Amino acid sequence: MEIAILAPVYNEEKYINDTIKGLKAITYNPDIFIVDDCSTDNTLNILKDIENINVISLKENKGKGNALQKGLETIIDRYDAIGFVDGDVGLTSREMEKLISPILERKADVTIAKFPPPKKKGGFGMVKKLSFYGIKFFTGKEIYSGLSGQRVFKTEVLKDFKTIPFGYGVEVGMTIDILRRGYNVIEIPVEMSHDETGRDIGGIKHRLKQFVHIGIILIRKIFER
Question: Which residue ranges does the record assign to the Glycosyltransferase 2-like domain (predicted)?
Fold first, then answer.
């Protein structure tokens, strides 16, 4: 089975090198595709110096959903399974191996990484609650990691989507659509970590943007029913 890992990144100069190192350590030897969403820091220059990866450089920043869409347009017909990973997980990206195994063993159509509890206080749980209850409302299923960007799909699942949901609502929107179509989704506990946001102004703005994007996705789903 041919496997690819797709990582949309924006201004990840601090983590991207280690994230790629972790992906290269996966025993299944997936092909690695990095979609640079018009980074303004040194991310793209770092990527140019890394061997044995594929870089897709976008000319305009349009968000995570668009970056994933552009990446898939390039690779979807070439692989049997495709994983998504965020650029800020560092060396813990090696844990993606745990998500690949059930796909290869035909135990799941989609796997989602279930992270351990955060190491520092972040928000107040509103975004997670919106994700959990939004998914449950539309599908009847309880998915605790609906916000997780670390996933692996059988390619046939991804081909069922005409477009990827936009912005920070991408994971929740996709999870709802996948479950509605009857695919088998399982959550896999992993020892992964990412760049956690705190309760400062930047962190609050980030979570507010997440909340709004997810809310828009859920409202759109009402009219799709």
Answer: 5-159
